[in-house]
Design goal:
single chain, mainly alpha, 2 domains, two-stranded antiparallel ribbon, two-stranded antiparallel sheet, 10% strand
Length: 319
Amino acid sequence: MADALKTYLYALTHLKRGGTRYGIAPHKPVLVLTLMELVEKGIVLDNRFEADADLVGLFLENWQLLVATPHQADFTQPFYYLQSDKVGGEPFWHLQAKPGCTINAHIKSVNTLADVLDYGELRAALFALIQDLVSRTILQTALLDTYFPERKAYFFAAKHSGEGYLHDVESYILQEPEAHYKTIHIDTEEEVFVRNGLFKRHIIQLYQSSCAFTGMRLVSRHGHSFVDACHIVPFSVSHDDRIGNGIALCPNMHRAFDRGLLSVDEDYRIIVSPHFTEDESHDYSLRRLQGRRINGPKLAQYLPQFDKLTWHREHVFKQ
């Protein structure tokens, strides 16, 4: 491992970085530090780095902590171009596309990237180094000393405090009191991507992967929930992805809710529109849901907010 550590110490402290009018681009070292932190936190265990809210959110957090220049915090750029850095003539970072998809060029949209990417992976030797506490610490320190020496102390202090970009976004989504005093920006695709990903995760968790209307719970052995995290007032209208604007529904209930066939009253009971026909004798008849109280989160503070439900009844529900 000593020889591998020496090899990758050199590679990671000599990353290829383009010149810009603001100076040498800092994107690649921020990404590498982010990949290390995902492993350190136990979020990535098997050398499969997905383009998800964890990765993008942690990249944005580290960017805010480390980068003092006016460079744009473009996550997709280093995610693709890190493949140009090599050890022994071979790249140590590789992107694996989903079946039927290809990634032959820089994809500038994080949403498009997430749609076509299966995962990114490091060379096995480098991933093994990052999994080891001592080696990871050496590599992390070398990266900070090389690329961000002036911000190193600030970076460690912020990480130790547990505060930062992700903490603020989580607080905002969960409607915690402290979030009212912070401004959460939504003007970049990456920020919206992170917030939407965390919204979906928390809604599914708070509703215990169960449909609020039917109580159905279905989770695959791989941990994937088959209920949807739904916005009550569409995000395109409200730009609100806090828990109070969310509800967990199975796909057929989600479709009926979005089309105004179902809604929820001020007592959290389901109301059913008269404007459709169905076989009411069927076990899954929508009209059997009339008056049933929703299956909501255990804590009242996470239930759908009354103003959001009122908006849905007035603008979507077919009376």
